[in-house]
Amino acid sequence: MKAIEILKSVQNGETTAEEAMLKLRMQPFEELGYATVDHHRQLRTGIAEVIYGEGKTAEQISGIATSMLNNKQSVILITRMSKKIAEAVKKDHPQMTYHELARVGIIGEIPKPDGIGYVVVATGGTTDLPVAEEAALTAEALGNEVVRLYDVGVAGLHRLLAKLDVVMGARCVVAVAGMEGALPSVMGGLVDCPVIAVPVNCGYGASFNGLSALLTMLNSCASGVCVMNIDNGFGGGYLASMINHQ
Amino acid sequence: MKAIEILKSVQNGETTAEEAMLKLRMQPFEELGYATVDHHRQLRTGIAEVIYGEGKTAEQISGIATSMLNNKQSVILITRMSKKIAEAVKKDHPQMTYHELARVGIIGEIPKPDGIGYVVVATGGTTDLPVAEEAALTAEALGNEVVRLYDVGVAGLHRLLAKLDVVMGARCVVAVAGMEGALPSVMGGLVDCPVIAVPVNCGYGASFNGLSALLTMLNSCASGVCVMNIDNGFGGGYLASMINHQ
Amino acid sequence: MKAIEILKSVQNGETTAEEAMLKLRMQPFEELGYATVDHHRQLRTGIAEVIYGEGKTAEQISGIATSMLNNKQSVILITRMSKKIAEAVKKDHPQMTYHELARVGIIGEIPKPDGIGYVVVATGGTTDLPVAEEAALTAEALGNEVVRLYDVGVAGLHRLLAKLDVVMGARCVVAVAGMEGALPSVMGGLVDCPVIAVPVNCGYGASFNGLSALLTMLNSCASGVCVMNIDNGFGGGYLASMINHQ
Amino acid sequence: MKAIEILKSVQNGETTAEEAMLKLRMQPFEELGYATVDHHRQLRTGIAEVIYGEGKTAEQISGIATSMLNNKQSVILITRMSKKIAEAVKKDHPQMTYHELARVGIIGEIPKPDGIGYVVVATGGTTDLPVAEEAALTAEALGNEVVRLYDVGVAGLHRLLAKLDVVMGARCVVAVAGMEGALPSVMGGLVDCPVIAVPVNCGYGASFNGLSALLTMLNSCASGVCVMNIDNGFGGGYLASMINHQ
Amino acid sequence: MKAIEILKSVQNGETTAEEAMLKLRMQPFEELGYATVDHHRQLRTGIAEVIYGEGKTAEQISGIATSMLNNKQSVILITRMSKKIAEAVKKDHPQMTYHELARVGIIGEIPKPDGIGYVVVATGGTTDLPVAEEAALTAEALGNEVVRLYDVGVAGLHRLLAKLDVVMGARCVVAVAGMEGALPSVMGGLVDCPVIAVPVNCGYGASFNGLSALLTMLNSCASGVCVMNIDNGFGGGYLASMINHQ
Amino acid sequence: MKAIEILKSVQNGETTAEEAMLKLRMQPFEELGYATVDHHRQLRTGIAEVIYGEGKTAEQISGIATSMLNNKQSVILITRMSKKIAEAVKKDHPQMTYHELARVGIIGEIPKPDGIGYVVVATGGTTDLPVAEEAALTAEALGNEVVRLYDVGVAGLHRLLAKLDVVMGARCVVAVAGMEGALPSVMGGLVDCPVIAVPVNCGYGASFNGLSALLTMLNSCASGVCVMNIDNGFGGGYLASMINHQ
Amino acid sequence: MKAIEILKSVQNGETTAEEAMLKLRMQPFEELGYATVDHHRQLRTGIAEVIYGEGKTAEQISGIATSMLNNKQSVILITRMSKKIAEAVKKDHPQMTYHELARVGIIGEIPKPDGIGYVVVATGGTTDLPVAEEAALTAEALGNEVVRLYDVGVAGLHRLLAKLDVVMGARCVVAVAGMEGALPSVMGGLVDCPVIAVPVNCGYGASFNGLSALLTMLNSCASGVCVMNIDNGFGGGYLASMINHQ
Amino acid sequence: MKAIEILKSVQNGETTAEEAMLKLRMQPFEELGYATVDHHRQLRTGIAEVIYGEGKTAEQISGIATSMLNNKQSVILITRMSKKIAEAVKKDHPQMTYHELARVGIIGEIPKPDGIGYVVVATGGTTDLPVAEEAALTAEALGNEVVRLYDVGVAGLHRLLAKLDVVMGARCVVAVAGMEGALPSVMGGLVDCPVIAVPVNCGYGASFNGLSALLTMLNSCASGVCVMNIDNGFGGGYLASMINHQ
Fold it and tell me: Which residues in chain F are closer than 8 Å to H54, comparing Cβ atoms?
């Protein structure tokens, strides 16, 4: 059964709204061959669609985006897209803006913030910026006001303390850090809102490609801290938006 | 300067409310020798105080609890407390209820739920119950309605699908699972709210004491999933409450 | 003693068939210098010969293939062969077809399926395709009907459930997945046939080059699931064919 | 809808047999509180039900078994059950036989072998016996003839070669080994049937609790070898039975 | 040649002081059978002798101590000694004081502090106390004034900031922490003296027996931080003393 | 409040020197956008500023250096800077000297040694030289006399013993080693001063990118040995300077 | 064919000695049920038989030993046998001597040394003694003169250097060490004979149960060093004897 | 004191030969700046000198070789040297032969075999050849007859069994294998001489860069097997030569 048929059966009184909602959530999608584009996802999750660019060709990204636009998607976020591929995609989608540091492309206009409060994206150092920008742009594309606090790592505590009021007013904090990864713990002790910890693959030696920061964050003594995969800035921004819109 | 002095100086017009809030958040605490009990934490984080029982003697737990009660704490949650220690603590605090499976003690009355919606705590199997109960009791002690969905692991999908409506109505899901740890991924694809994944140390061999489930959860393809430390049911319940109260 | 001598001694009544079978299985092979080509392997294992292309030069691959063709091998499967090497091999063996995504070359005609049922090759996402195609082509080269179900990962369960009848009719399932690697567990709960789980090296961070998916699969709660090495699509297809031909 | 209703609707011609089969596979189960006993599993997977005893009390095991017997289950296999718990379970189920080495209990009569051929269960050394016996008893409880070949490890090759004819006639081999774990590789080179490799947690030092054997098996150069979790004798026996009954 | 002979040859003018110093450093020791007691170590390293108690019997500890006392050692520190063994050793050496929390015994009087400044020993939480006390007692036995700052972890920053003046006046800091292990990083950013980081095996799950804290400390962004083995409180106190006496 | 205002308030008698020192240490810094340059760090830690070059562009390094020079920094050390980037930086800062082996640039004149003694930097082999030179140049830039002892590894003990007098006269030893990493242990047994162990990522196979040497050093039986991150020559030189200037 | 028949066929001239040797090596053994006792192993490997006691009951050990004695084995070495089990075995085999530290039992007389030179067994510390004694007793039981050099670890180099002449005269060195495990490297640089490195599971924290010492030894810069499994004293003594008897 | 002076003092009767030997072994070497060339090593270890080429420039290799030739070294082995560097070295040392597969260069004539027997170098597969050739060439350069048995892995046992007589006659076996690494175990069960196991970094996925093969070999059940670092063909050949010359 197609989505329209489901909705008509509600109109006819054959199906209750509740049943229809369940059916809609479980059912419609379209097969393109190389990927199952999920057009009802916006209905299902209430937000813009995302294309995970890693390992996809420019043709694949363009094709998926076109299919989405045809289905009335207004904002499309493309993550993990190299500059070279972005330039190729731009030929088909000239309206796309590309953010090189974050390796993120956005098709469509960034919506006005409609969240309850604002989201803080903080980093320990400057090498954490690409991941932090992926988080910040994701949150912005999903309708959030974002305050960036970069290079406020715990080895120079005064830099963070100087911004204490901004931190404390946030509705959700995304704390991005590599090396020793202690920023989320310190932040979790300062704020009353959820802290989403994103470990970063930077440093060298015993950082073991971000494993050290990941373990630090999982062991945080502060309550209210949860952890994303290493370098998963998108995931951090997405979850922050979810919390800021509930 | 003590808390009362800070507040008086606001009354006198010497300090603005904003400054006072900052001062209060950063300042008062009391030293007991073996632990710094943080009486203004309720002010700071808005919820009940928690005693992490692991490695503490009955005397230490009792002493900290007494100090808290003297400071007007109404609900005290004690986690990771063995039955034997609980019995010793009960002599000083007979009003404590003890939950053996979760190894949790609660002093004071569980408050009426005052969250926005309800929290689902789900498990993959029966061996995940102790961790799930720690999460559920924590959430209840912090004022949340909790719906338990136990033994709905992904190797028998029909069990989870039969509860689809309950899952979809939740404001936050705590998904507790050991072994392959796939429950949070499946749930993250079904719901629109945050899914807090708690890996469990169970199974044998290549489960490597919960490491397998932890890695599975960190690699979840579903958006909106974040991860706690292995066996950290308390952390999952605490964060769920935070999200449900915002 | 050579194979023909063994067989003659059976003819003469000097050796029983059982003894001869044992002798044949243990004995004949030929030395090329850089590899021991095993011409009686077809006799031994009843199927086509395979050349593992990794680390071999075009000359070596061509030479081994020629030796096999001289020994009446009708189908030769070459795995892990780059496009560049394939082009060089094609000069000696123009009848070879090359599948770039799977990095597989096939010399000789794909035989008609003679298995008992069909084999399902399923993937969680689009990045799993190269490994899945290696599995599917291997199974086809060994005489199996293959049904491909790609991009049916557990974070969007409806995609898999929509194909439930196809999955349930399979004689063997090869479930290929990276990231959280939960597909084999879900499939193992749905079908009555063996599920061969193949973890894929994709993703980033805590996927640790496929280790996360490998551990997930080893810890599967579903019965009837067994596991191959990371990225071992060939092994999955080979075993599936073995099971489908018994 | 209940199972009987589904079947009646087939009788009435309202539902086709195929639809009904799908519905039955996805639907009925019963909640006991601590575990979802799955009474239609026999229908679903065609074999006896299994209780995973690890971490369950004697009361829980007894209760689940009683519920199964009430639902006409004829053979119940209980794995990972200590001698002490087995003695307690026996009070409720005196017909249970208990195998101490394998820590396995069986309620009901072992069925006559109805598989196509026989299953070989082989071990590298004597310390692998508990896991091997778990595999062998599981296969027997599921209706398979089992040939045991114990202590035929690769460091004394003549012991294995002396049994070559038995090994070669098997329909499926379960190769159980700890330490260097090389037995499945050697067997995979000798036979034409699937080899299910089960690594064992034994040895010391760099065996790292079975990790060494697990990695050896995953890296096997022999085709047709697949791997189970460390110490998962049950899984090996179950999959062998599945292959032997197709 | 014995030590006295070396010194006499200096007196005679046959050997220069420099040569003699070298000879003395390399030469004398005595064999007891189970351990080579090194009586000139005091000369060599300028401080009291230490007995590492782990795995030694009460008889062995007593014997080594007696041999040391016979060689005019005035202070003997015994680490990693259980209460039970300490009681047995006390029969031979009643003048020994035993510190149960730190599992340390001291024979002889603690010397007056003769270091240049004072040493701060700080911990993140209360579970770090045994390791911290081992460090503090070691430093005291070696002639240092020690200031203890316990339970000042980074998840409650105000507790550490309240002691800022004490921390900043130290000549060396031993920062002891488990879980996320972020204390040394924060301290390294506050002080100008060396910070010796000692990771602690506490916590659970992804703390991996102190590995998480160890990695955090090795990756510290703060300059002037160096790291000891997990739980090596003795090593931290010893090095702190060395720095405080130079 | 700015630094100058703080100092004036001391002049006015409004603030004591002690209070002012604390305020100064916690407060002033400047935001450049991509990095928080910390101009009072010299005041705070008493030594030259360091730019960690890894992952920074030539423009970023030049900009930070210019900002530092404008704030009267006399010596600037730039670590982990490739030759290519160094050449670009030299256009803006022609007075910079570049040390290719160590990948270190120094702007400003190396100060005369003003430490108490000298620092020994020793290596086990020739592949450890880049890390050792980073350590040695750092120490020299911070005002230390450095004695280099290269290629004195423990597999040829006579090379180290021939330099015994130099080693024994040091105030601090930085022992740099890869492979088995045993040099710090041997040195720790020979000297009375702190030994800073720096593991090196060299070798192959089971060296696991320096992990082997790191573990060796953490497990050193010699007292007075502490450990830095793998390849952290800068950290070793910095800490050595701190100890040599106390 | 039995061994005696093979030998008779040589007598008859039907078989050459070379063929018979091969047949004998590959063929005879006897099945006891729980273990395949290999009576021709003495013929095969030229030395006494060994029983690996770990995980075997007293009955099993006694039974195997009796079977060996019946087959004219003159010396039997039993390793990894607890005191309790040894006492039970002694009832059947009162002539057995038991070495508690090494957990080794020996039935039969230790043969006179018939090796070419002597074997040195050296340890880094006193906690390495159980493993070293297992090595030394094994070598003695196999007919070697053994020189023990205990507690000569590299953190006190003078202890080893004092024994230089003994070390340099050895035909083979077994170097047993835990913690940093540097002893084999230092020895490998001093001697011209093979050095067999045996890592020991001792220490704590980052020793990771002997992994640290194992890695150190595998990375040894000294030529002529080979490595055994952690705690494998038997293997070290066995190989040393093999080298000393060639 | 120089070497010549030591020898003269023997001539004069001032020093005994034994003392002189010790002095010579500990003392003379020469500093080139980038490496301590050890000219008395031939005296010390009785064999040719080796240059480890990894990470060295052509100039460094040439310089060291020239210095050695000046000191009358007749055979120089250079390992881990790329083709490009070899060509540069050849300009200075045209008499060098270069073996590309093994990446080994040899200056001087390979000596006639003067060992007691012959050395077998065996591999499991063709990808193990570079490491095996490094071992074989090393052994040949040190005066050993070498028999190569390549591609005789355990997944095709008949290939190894066909060479049984050659294997059994060896004085020492170097068994080189990647993937599952089972070859040394099987060989250890067949021969009476030492088996030197060399794990190889080949394969993919769970081979973890040779770790899997390394662990397999360390856990070998066969006595007389010892292990080298991953890819350490040189070490294997060196030790084999040592054993073959004793």
Answer: 127, 204
DSSP codes of every residue in chain D? --HHHHHHHHHTTSS-HHHHHHHHHHS--EE-SS-EE-TTHHHHHSS-EEEE-TT--HHHHHHHHHHHHHTT---EEEES--HHHHHHHHHH-TT-EEETTTTEEEESPPPPP-SSSEEEEEESSGGGHHHHHHHHHHHHHTT-EEEEE-S--GGGHHHHHTTHHHHHT-SEEEEEE-TT--HHHHHHHH-SS-EEEEE---S-GGGGGGHHHHHHHHT-SSTTEEE--TT-HHHHHHHHHHHHH-
* Chain G contact for F62 (CB, 8 A cutoff): no
**What's the pLDDT score for residue B16?**
54
Report how far apart, in Å, the C-alpha atoms of B45 and of each of B2, E151, E154 are. 19, 19, 16
ipTM: 0.83
- Is pLDDT above 80 for D40? no
**DSSP string covering C44-71:** HHSS-EEEE-TT--HHHHHHHHHHHHHT
Beta partners for residue H199, in sequence order: H177
Q: How far is CA B226 from CA A78, A198, A223, B172, B175, in A?
A: 21, 10, 14, 11, 10
* Residue H19 CB coordination number (10 Å): 14
Contact H232 F205 (CB under 8 A): yes
- Residue C165 parent element (H or E): helix C164-168
**pLDDT tens-place string over residues F192-228:** 899 999 999 998 898 999 999 999 999 998 889 999 9
E129 touches chain B (CB under 8 A): yes
- Under an 8 A CB cutoff, do G36 and D151 touch? yes
CB contact B229 to E (< 8 Å): yes
| D229–C contact, CB cutoff 8 A | yes
* Cβ-Cβ contacts under 8 Å for A20 (sequence gap 6 or more): A6, A7, A9, A10
Size of interface F-G (CB pairs under 8 A): 109
Distance from CA of C5 to the nearest CA of D (A): 21
Predicted TM-score (pTM) of this structure: 0.85
The reply to whether D155 touches chain G by the CB within 8 Å rule is: no
Task: Indicate yes or no: CB of H155 within 8 angstroms of CB of D180.
Answer: no
Q: Which residues on G lie below 8 Å from H25 (Cβ)?
A: 168, 190
A148 CB within 8 Å of a chain F CB: no
Q: Which of C23-27, E15-19, E151-155 has the highest mean pLDDT?
A: E151-155
Which SS3 state, helix, strand or coil, does residue C174 take?
Answer: strand
Under a CB-based contact definition with an 8 Å cutoff, are residues D144 and D115 in contact? yes
Q: Which of C126, C148, C180 to mutate to test the interface with A (most CBs of A within 10 A)?
A: C126
Query: By C-alpha distance, which of A141, A64, A63, A75 is closest to A108?
Result: A75
CA distance F184 to F192: 13
From B43-47, E13-17, E208-212, H19-23, the region with the lowest mean pLDDT: B43-47
CB G216 to CB F182 under 8 A?
A: yes
Under an 8 A CB cutoff, do B229 and E205 touch?
yes
Buried-exposed string F120-144: b where 16+ CB fall within 10 A, e elsewhere: bbbbbbbbbbbbbbbbbbbbbbbbb
Give the nearest partner residue to A204 out of F38, F56, F231, using CB atoms: F231
Tokens representing D243 are 């292959």
Most confident of A140-149, A152-161, D35-44, F28-37: A140-149
For B225, the closest chain A residue by CA position comes to A239
Instruction: Please give the DSSP secondary-structure letter assigned to residue G201.
Output: -
pLDDT at residue H71 in the model: 77
Q: Does G230 touch chain D (CB under 8 A)?
A: yes
Q: Quickly state the pLDDT bin for F37 (edges 50, 70, 90).
A: very low
Q: Residue A188's Cα: distance from chain center in Å?
A: 20
What's residue F9's pLDDT? 54
